[in-house]
């Protein structure tokens, strides 16, 4: 499968979130996320779904992976990563968007990583899995300086599996 990407915002120690919330509010990153994922499928775990405003992300096919016997409103529900990958196998690109367990399970199958690297450390209880740098090539690395709406400097990075 050569169409599976992962997208995440991480702190300098690969922090993802705390108490099922993002590390911080960065409008520039939310806009970046929307631009990249619009028109594509997004795959998420049930805890990530719970962190959203209880409705699917617009202009995207929302797929929720859960072990529970539950359905999510206006989403496609699957019970394994294999079932999620089967749903997107014919798409140009699909995105795993969290959480930590989904990133860990899907990382071996991903061929692109879109990482927002926030230039700060954070208190966190979930982390992005460690990336073996020898397996990836940095193809984009755009610096964005903090401003009145975004409290931290950050880098938009795109890594492609070798």
What is the overall pLDDT average? Answer: 96
Q: Name the strands of the widest sheet in spatial order.
A: 6-5-4-7-1-8-11-10
Question: Distance N terminus to C terminus?
Answer: 14 Å
User: Can you summarize the main beta sheet?
Assistant: 8 strands, mixed
Q: What is the helix tally?
A: 4
Task: Compute the number of strand runs.
Answer: 11
Strand content: 25-35%
Q: Which sequence of SSEs, written as H and E, runs from N to C?
A: EEEHEHEEHEHEEEE
Structural class: alpha/beta
Report the radius of gyration as a whole number of Å.
Answer: 15 Å
Low-confidence spans: none
Write up this protein.
The chain is α/β, with parallel strands linked by helices and about 160 residues long. It is built from 4 helices and 11 strands. It has helices at about 25-35, 45-50, 80-90, 100-105; strands spanning about 5-10, 15-20, 20, 40-45, 60-65, 75-80, 95, 110-120, 125, 135-145, 155-160. The strands form 2 sheets. Strands 6-5-4-7-1-8-11-10 form an 8-stranded mixed sheet, with helices on both faces. The protein has a 3-stranded antiparallel sheet with strand order 3-2-9, with no helix packed on it. The radius of gyration is 15 Å and the shape is globular. The mean pLDDT is about 95.
Summary tags:
162 residues; alpha/beta; eight-stranded mixed sheet; three-stranded antiparallel sheet; 11 strands; 20% helix
Give a topology summary.
Blueprint: E1 4-10, E2 15-18, E3 21-22, H1 27-37, E4 41-45, H2 46-51, E5 61-65, E6 76-78, H3 81-88, E7 94-96, H4 100-106, E8 112-118, E9 126-127, E10 136-144, E11 154-161
Parallel strand pairs: 1-7, 1-8, 4-5, 4-7, 5-6
Antiparallel strand pairs: 2-3, 2-9, 8-11, 10-11
